[in-house]
Specification:
The protein is mainly α. Helices cover 80% and strands 0% of the residues. The termini are far apart.
């Protein structure tokens, strides 16, 4: 039975705030590649370095503070959980995406449009963003917004409150221009948090996040290369 090893609230807030700042750094480094092409190598190193720091440090802290019960699952149970979570996200995104187009006439969320604009600035940036979206971002964001957030601030008995608040903080770091866009990311964050909280296994939410980002990259690539 995992024990509650949460730090004091001020320490938890300091840790989480540091990660929220760090996760904003890779996009800034990517934009600087386009704006300062002579320093491309430096910005690429910083871009990958920020992700490396987040994942390495986040994984270490997650292992230390993890206190939720872990449900034993076979390989096929893992696959079923990941597929089910992804399909739940797709269903929600279809409904909310159609509402976004109907009410606000937006084909892309502000966050996706910002990614398209960033990728359009340089082939190197496009490669970096595609790589990180699939291989780095799912690990970094799940460690921050599920693994750390839910273990740092909530005890092992809490269920719905950490799920809802995880969805909320996940929403706040994704650019949105209207309430529907916010709801898209809130819903996605809540599904990922529910999967993690109900299984206690972060690899499930990482797998869902990875598949979602992979599909999203394929969908936005035509807007980048047109």
């Amino acid at each position: 039975m995992p024990t509650d090893r949460r730090p004091s609230f001020p320490r938890a807030l300091l840790i989480f705030s540091a990660f929220c700042i760090l996760i904003l750094m890779p996009p800034e480094a990517a934009r600087n590649i386009t704006e300062h092409p002579r320093l491309t190598i430096l910005w690429v190193i910083l871009y990958l370095g920020f992700f490396g720091l987040i994942i390495a440090w986040g994984q270490r802290l997650y292992r230390h503070y993890d206190h939720f019960n872990h449900r034993s699952q076979s390989f096929f149970a893992h696959a079923k959980t990941i597929l089910g979570g992804y399909m739940a996200i797709v269903a929600g995104e279809i409904v909310l995406g159609n509402l976004n187009r109907l009410i606000y006439h937006q084909v892309q969320t502000a966050n996706n449009q910002a990614i398209i604009d960033t990728m359009s600035g340089s082939p190197i940036v496009s490669i970096l963003v595609c790589f990180s979206a699939v291989c780095l971002t799912p690990f970094a964001e799940e460690l921050i917004f599920r693994g750390l957030f839910m273990n740092l601030f909530f005890n092992a008995r809490d269920f719905w409150l950490p799920i809802l608040l995880s969805g909320l903080v996940f929403t706040l770091v994704h650019a949105s221009s209207n309430i529907i866009s916010y709801l898209i990311y809130f819903y996605m964050g809540c599904v990922l948090a529910y999967v993690y909280r109900s299984t206690g296994n972060l690899t499930n939410s990482i797998g869902i996040h990875l598949i979602n980002n992979l599909v999203s990259i394929f969908l936005i690539l035509p807007a980048v290369i047109k």
